[in-house]
């Protein structure tokens, strides 16, 4: 099978600090792939390289069989990649509905024009409502975002990424800072995402993350230490030594 995402020899340094070291990674269609590693291992940097927020110094990124190494972030999104960020990056004064509509517009070529016809607008509004319903926020559509809880914002972020109908979704610590109840809501939400969408996730909550993952890659000092099935990586002594044991 062809991988949906393939990284070959990817490297990145910030000044003298080498944070990504010759990373090779293959992710197959529909896979739930977990990136683990101690703080500072370079996980978020790898997401930034994949999404195009940072430019790699060397190596190659192939998305759905296409070389996207030199493409800007927006083009990668057009080619099927969506991500959420570790820090909530939404428009606080705007309603939940408008936030989702902005995400929908981000995917649409209409973005750079004015609104199209009234029926276009109706379709867009209906889709935004459907996306909010899917993450259990339908009843809050008209509320300004700043009146929602942190957990709801994190759910909205996932909704906005899904609204773009990605083929590959990057989730950066979707459970960070959430209560046990909110974590459970996100866990269920993640479990409901269509298997056609490939997901790569960074997450430190091992209980949820391990239940979710098919395959795991362990990073340390920017380098892939090992990758394999969940069982292979969990049972490897290096995982305990470098990550789980700390
Ligand atoms: N824009 C930047 N400029 C300089 N150094 C950076 C930049 N972004 C990340 N780094 C450094 O790169 C290293 C890896 O950081 P990164 O955030 O990728 O790690 P991480 O594995 O995601 O960590 P965490 O689990 O704490 O989120 C760190 O030493 C960090 O300080």
UniProtKB/TrEMBL annotation:
Keyword match Chaperone: no
Keywords: ATP-binding, Cell membrane, Membrane, Nucleotide-binding, Transport
A single MF term (Gene Ontology): ATP binding
Gene3D superfamilies noted in UniProt: P-loop containing nucleotide triphosphate hydrolases (3.40.50.300)
Domain ABC transporter as annotated: residue spans: 5-246
Domain of life: Bacteria
Protein name, UniProt field: ABC transporter ATP-binding protein
Organism expressing this protein natively: Actimicrobium antarcticum
